[in-house]
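Entry for zinc ion complex. Fields follow.
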Amino acid sequence: MIKKILPGLLSLLCLTFFSLEALSAQVKPDITLKGVITGSENNSYVEAPFTVPDGIVSITVTFHYTGKEQHTALDLGLFDPERFRGWSGGNKDHFTVSTTSATPSYLPGPLPAGQWKLIIGVPNIRETVTSNYEANIFFTREKSTPTSFADAPLRDGPAWYRGDLHIHTAHSDGSCQSQSGKKVPCPVFLTAETASARGLDFIAVTDHNTDSHYDALRELQPYFDKLLFIPGREITTFWGHANLFGPTDFVDFRVGTTVPSAQMLFEEAARMHAILSINHPNAPTGQVCMGCGWTPKEAVDPHLIQSIEAVNGGAEEGQYSGISFWEKYLNQGYRITAIGGSDNHNAPAPAGSRSAIGSPTTVIYADNLSVPAILDGIRKGHVFIDLSATRDRRFEIAAEDGNQKGIMGDALPAPAGSTVQISAHVVACSGNKLRFLLDGQPVASLDSNISQADQGISLTLPSDGKKHWLRPDVVSPEGKLILLGNPIYLNYTEDKK
Ligand SMILES: [Zn+2]
Ligand SMILES: [Zn+2]
């Protein structure tokens, strides 16, 4: 029975996707309630109390009973010490309530310590029948990440997955037109529908500082079983914005008041195994956009910065683009992943318009379509950005030196005097040009015209044995950026943090 419910627990308990066998050994319920319902209890409500200790951040209940073949039906509901928390009747055999979200039928909110009660409703049990029930209760005690709203990966297997990592909804300043044409806060489901219609595999709804959108996402995820929701929010300070991916727990954003420095935010993100990605770092800060540029009072240790939004939907190129900010860190020797985000504030905005959902698209090579795997792909730098928001452009770069191989984001030893073999696979980019930057400088010998819809290109680069970052782009004949690739890091010996 445990094995049957474990896939659901993978996400509910904020665990990464281990094998079922591994989980069976690791996940033990904190409390098991067993009881017997008899025929005399037909059409009544039975209480099953249990004690919730201090410091719990989510509670998952699984519920099973015998006698279904004899038409026994048991319903389920929940009270905390102070209030009613929901009723799922006979429609769910497991549910989660946490401070920020809950399985539909149940209410999120504080989880006070004390005596809670499962309410077991008995709509039908025959007079001579008995039914054994078992409720397993699992507590999550610590802020943990990644959280997921999906019970299991939405798609198995390694692939390039396409998504948008920066979107606003009614839970912050996202707006759209109502049925009668009024400007109204734009509901989350329109964001999901639009992203799905554009063929995206994942999105992060990143409303400003709040955690109120997670409950909507938990409701929507089972329906959108081809579109993964990455838990996100835009930590919005007076000296810069940064998207936090992974956790759903409250994270204090009040830099300068209750949080001493931006550095502390990054330390907290690291502690939570989250990704905190600096947004639109070169945006102007002013009365139109308070704190939009990245200007912390004290510099953040770059080792803690895992990701930078190099391409924001409002500023793909030009002075406000984040690419120069990112490359400055690359030139200092850091390995930081460039990602993109539309910063959409109006879900139905047509494809191709500025900041439309999916413009730009961030494309991530991940082991499967799950929150842990997508975040892992970002950490590894296995990422390119499709500025034109197509559904089909592919950009695979691999480099090889001796027996060692790497793709975008990887480090590759390249001893002095050796030759780095570069292979590119570019799809749907005909008529454009592949180019490479070595430490930010163009390498003319690696320029290649792309003339086929699906083209492989082989190149070589002699190595001087020194540390370099080598980054590919696809640009139009006019020099407009179409695809931005993350670097391959030559002769970087230290591990990526
Ligand atoms: Zn912002
Ligand atoms: Zn934003």
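NOTE: Confidence is low (pLDDT under 50) at residues 1-25.
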